[in-house]
Amino acid sequence: MDESTNREKVLKKVRSALISKTPNPYPNLDMDSNVFHQSSLPLEVEFAEKFTETNGQFVLCNGRIELMENILMVCDTNNYTDVVCIDRNLSAFFDEFEFPHQSVFEPESDTDLQVVALPCECLIARQGTIVISKNMTGDMRLLSSARNLMVIAHAHQIVPDLKEALDFVKAQNDNKLPEEMLVIDGNRKKNTSTETTELNRITVILIQPFDERL
């Protein structure tokens, strides 16, 4: 049969379908309710359990002094001697306590960083994962160059699931998602635009109550 004839038949069926649409068999289908089981645990506890199940380190602290004590403890436990932190607020916090660190990242030369300390967009309790964007890194090659990560987060940044995470990130970024985002668990970092890269250790230090200086 002529190919053009077959094409006309297909187009005719498509036009017919567009003109006489089939009624929706499920007009009251709920697309908004969460389909997952809702945990009764506090979000901090649920995140900590899920995150440590994937070999992540989790530390909870109260206030700035305890935060620095825990950062020193994490560095001592993991033998971290060279910390990189380009975030302005965290770097100022390190300077306040005279904590030695590198505050500038040079992509061409800094290709093997022992540990990078940085904030995050949010934490997802149900999956025990961390959302990081280019807002935190300036250059995503910072993460590619890191052997270990030390993530500083606030308790209010923990959200139940991925949908809430996207809403939270958009709310913090003028109702837009950042150009580049990563979702990281305790084992490795994942990126939809590049290959997955293994990390030796990921530590989350959760601080409460909220400190606007961090």
Write a structural description.
The protein has helices at residues 3-19, 43-53, 64-77, 88-96, 134-137, 141-144, 162-172; strands at residues 57-62, 83-84, 115-118, 122-124, 129-133, 148-154, 158-159, 181-184, 188-190, 197-198, 201-208. With 214 residues, it is α/β, with parallel strands linked by helices. It has one domain (46-208): Rossmann fold, CATH 3.40.50.10420. Strands 7-4-5-8-9-10 form a 6-stranded mixed β-sheet. β9 and β10 form a beta hairpin. Residues 190-195 have low confidence and may be disordered.
Q: What layout of secondary structure does this protein have?
A:
Layout: H1 3-19, H2 43-53, E1 57-62, H3 64-77, E2 83-84, H4 88-96, E3 115-118, E4 122-124, E5 129-133, H5 134-137, H6 141-144, E6 148-154, E7 158-159, H7 162-172, E8 181-184, E9 188-190, E10 197-198, E11 201-208
Parallel strand pairs: 1-11, 2-3, 3-6, 4-7, 6-11
Antiparallel strand pairs: 4-5, 5-8, 8-9, 9-10
Describe the main β-sheet briefly. Answer: 6 strands, mixed
H-E order = HHEHEHEEEHHEEHEEEE
Total number of strands: 11
Could you name the CATH homologous superfamily? NagB/RpiA/CoA transferase-like
Derived from helix and strand composition plus strand pairing, the structural class reads alpha/beta
Assembly status = single chain
Beta strand %: 15-25%
At CATH level 2, the architecture is 3-Layer(aba) Sandwich
Percentage of helical residues? 25-40%
Computed CA radius of gyration, to the nearest angstrom: 23 Å
Counted by DSSP, the helix tally is 7
Number of spatially distinct domains:
1
Average pLDDT rating: 85
Model regions low in confidence, pLDDT < 50 over at least 5 residues? 190-195
Look up the CATH topology.
Rossmann fold
| Arrangement of strands in the largest sheet | 7-4-5-8-9-10
The geometry reads as elongated
What is the CA–CA distance across the termini? 71 Å
